């Protein structure tokens, strides 16, 4: 299909399990807004792996800088991270097309014209569709800019521009604070549960409790979760009716873990699971305590037993992994599980991504039998 439609389809598909990486700065998902646009455009123009990787980093850093400038105000107003994703994808595609500063400004203006996505649609298919639309918007914006279509310069900060219309509050100094280690990419976070990232800290705390001491459900009289409220409101929802809604319900995700349902398996988030009376009953017993001073990616779980014993554990899902070898193994094992391929086939595909910088053309990511006809459209 066309690069534009490929970005839409792959962006949507890449987010549909809600299992993709996240970043504190946005807060939300960065990669999935940008990578589908670059892979589609890179394939179309015959870009090398190194060119796509460089453009990806440019878009990633752009999205994180914008996120830090807004300091969560977009999130608080209900905007999905895709509002920034469209702009970041445009910046990345502009870099891949080697556009100059005026063209990049035009691409960003054209991306702002297409930006959107609201929290009110979380728990439905629209959440992942918004990601695909952001990737498509960024690709189209860069291509349109290369054809001479114009927007207003300084669209981010000008009056009635992006900041004023979408957020209203932006700290330019915060956006330009150097990232730890030099790159925001170094603080990217990878999911280990197939649910909203704001459920992960509580799930981490439960795992620690259950590992430290076996906690039979029959002995538990009370479970309390301490979290902040503003960002967690998206996971404090009505009892779920299907798997998509379950991913955005903290008490239900915790109930799944307490009953030994593997929350790392995306296929456990389905109607059959949400219909289980035992899970519904346990979720209804989870008490949520609000602590406005708590870090938004942290949670404390307290369990009280019938004999009066009380156990507590604290989880912080916002700490990047520092052991890169262990992180690589974890991500690769997760990928093999999700690919549905034999290990040899999956390992070969992973190797292509690991060696992305050395690929002469990005189309070389495809298995040989799936290679697309190579085009010569780049001047």
TrEMBL record:
<dbReference type="InterPro" id="IPR042183">
    <property type="entry name" value="MmgE/PrpD_sf_1"/>
</dbReference>
<dbReference type="InterPro" id="IPR045337">
    <property type="entry name" value="MmgE_PrpD_C"/>
</dbReference>
<dbReference type="Pfam" id="PF03972">
    <property type="entry name" value="MmgE_PrpD_N"/>
</dbReference>
<protein>
    <submittedName>
        <fullName>MmgE/PrpD family protein</fullName>
    </submittedName>
</protein>
<dbReference type="Pfam" id="PF19305">
    <property type="entry name" value="MmgE_PrpD_C"/>
</dbReference>
<feature type="domain" description="MmgE/PrpD N-terminal">
    <location>
        <begin position="1"/>
        <end position="171"/>
    </location>
</feature>
<feature type="domain" description="MmgE/PrpD C-terminal">
    <location>
        <begin position="193"/>
        <end position="316"/>
    </location>
</feature>
<dbReference type="InterPro" id="IPR036148">
    <property type="entry name" value="MmgE/PrpD_sf"/>
</dbReference>
<dbReference type="InterPro" id="IPR042188">
    <property type="entry name" value="MmgE/PrpD_sf_2"/>
</dbReference>
<dbReference type="InterPro" id="IPR045336">
    <property type="entry name" value="MmgE_PrpD_N"/>
</dbReference>
<comment type="similarity">
    <text>Belongs to the PrpD family.</text>
</comment>
<dbReference type="InterPro" id="IPR005656">
    <property type="entry name" value="MmgE_PrpD"/>
</dbReference>
């Amino acid at each position: 299909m066309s690069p534009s439609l490929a970005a839409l389809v792959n962006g949507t598909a890449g987010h549909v399990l809600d299992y993709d990486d996240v970043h504190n700065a946005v807060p939300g998902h960065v990669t999935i807004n940008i990578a589908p646009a670059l892979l589609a455009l890179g394939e179309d123009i015959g870009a090398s792996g190194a060119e796509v990787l460089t453009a990806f980093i440019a878009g990633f850093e752009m999205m994180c800088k914008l996120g830090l400038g807004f300091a969560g105000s977009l999130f608080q107003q209900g905007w999905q991270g895709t509002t920034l994703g469209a702009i970041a994808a445009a910046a990345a595609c502009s870099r891949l097309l080697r556009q100059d500063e005026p063209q990049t400004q035009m691409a960003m203006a054209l991306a702002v014209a297409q930006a959107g996505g609201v929290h009110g649609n979380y728990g439905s298919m629209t959440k992942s569709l918004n990601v695909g639309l952001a990737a498509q918007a960024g690709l189209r914006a860069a291509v349109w800019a290369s054809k001479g279509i114009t927007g207003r310069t300084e669209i981010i900060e000008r009056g009635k521009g992006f900041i004023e219309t979408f957020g209203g509050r932006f700290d330019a100094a915060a956006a330009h604070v150097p990232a730890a280690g030099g790159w925001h990419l170094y603080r990217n976070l990878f999911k280990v549960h197939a649910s909203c990232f704001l459920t992960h800290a509580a799930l981490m705390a439960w795992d620690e409790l259950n590992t430290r001491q076996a906690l039979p459900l029959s002995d538990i009289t009370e479970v309390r979760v301490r979290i902040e409220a503003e960002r967690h409101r998206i996971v404090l929802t009505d009892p779920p009716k299907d798997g998509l809604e379950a991913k955005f319900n903290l008490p239900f995700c915790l109930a799944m873990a307490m009953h030994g349902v593997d929350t790392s398996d995306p296929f456990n988030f389905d109607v059959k699971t949400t219909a289980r009376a035992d899970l519904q009953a346990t979720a209804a017993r989870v008490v949520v305590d609000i602590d406005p001073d708590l870090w938004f990616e942290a949670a404390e779980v307290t369990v009280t037993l019938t004999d009066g014993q009380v156990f507590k554990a604290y989880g912080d899902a916002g700490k990047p992994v520092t052991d890169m070898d262990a992180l690589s193994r974890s991500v690769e094992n997760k990928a093999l599980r999700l690919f549905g391929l034999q290990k040899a086939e999956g390992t070969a595909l992973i190797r292509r991504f690991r060696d992305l910088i050395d690929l002469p053309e990005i189309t070389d990511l495809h298995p040989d039998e799936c290679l697309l006809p190579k085009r010569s459209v780049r001047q």
